[in-house]
Specification:
By secondary structure, the protein is an alpha+beta fold. The protein has 1 helix and 5 strands. The protein is globular, with a radius of gyration of 12 Å. The relative contact order is 0.26.
């Protein structure tokens, strides 16, 4: 098993993710070595903070716990 690199969540990066959700922007993220491109829907705060995104090809909603995201960037329009 390879060691997991945890992303540092600065206030600016968290705000960037929240803004992407408000604007329904595409976000490319890497989780456990797999890249996903999703339409950001919301950031939840329940027991774990997560990005909820919509997979454009299937219409499926997926939740990505922030502790599992290795990296992300908001895709330009």
């Amino acid at each position: 098993m390879t060691p997991q690199r945890l992303m540092r969540w600065s206030t600016a990066r968290y705000d960037e993710l929240e803004a992407a959700a408000v604007e329904r922007r595409r976000v490319a993220l890497t989780r456990r070595g797999t890249e996903f491109v999703v339409i950001a829907l919301r950031v939840t705060t329940g027991p774990t903070e997560s990005l909820v995104g919509l997979l454009p090809m299937t219409g499926e909603e997926m939740a990505f716990p922030l502790t599992e995201i290795d990296s992300f960037h908001v895709v330009d329009r």
